[in-house]
Input
Amino acid sequence: MDQQRTDRLPPLPLETLTEAQRTAAQALIDGPRKGVKGPFIPMLRSPELLDRVQRVGEYLRYDTVLENRIGEFVTLIVAREWSEPFEWSTHYPLALAAGVAQSTLDDLAEGARPQTMAQDEALAWDFTTELTRNKGVSDGTWQRALQQFGEQGVVELVGLIGYFTSVIMLLSAAHTPAVNPLPLPVLPR
Output
């Protein structure tokens, strides 16, 4: 992805915000994100959508039944699928802090199936890549995911994949830059 592209929907000047935009922005500032960043910068143009989407994301990031390590790893798998620098750069240190191995993330950055994954990470990799690449999940992977994560966990796993796919699509379309981008080679399509 060309890091030098022009930001199509840059931050809005505070004095130009509507009351609805101010309210949506304040909810982000007051919540666990502590600011209007990444996909929420372009999404601020639709404050009602921002409010609804950010609440889904807040649940999936901070209150899901999935272990934080799995959530961060899945987020990076989706970011890698899209070669998307903002979410990659944001969630990479979070994944490390949550316990994903450096070697796992190194392989993922290169677009390879990581060689060193915990069993639940390997299952999350299989599930996420099957869903994103094949537009479905095999019966075997589905059953393994149910055994590992339970029904609620599988539903929230799909929700997490869908949420990050959606915000990454907006970041990609709007050319929203990463603040401190980490190296992420663009994968061939």
The chain has a mean pLDDT of 94. The chain has two domains: 14-62, 68-174.
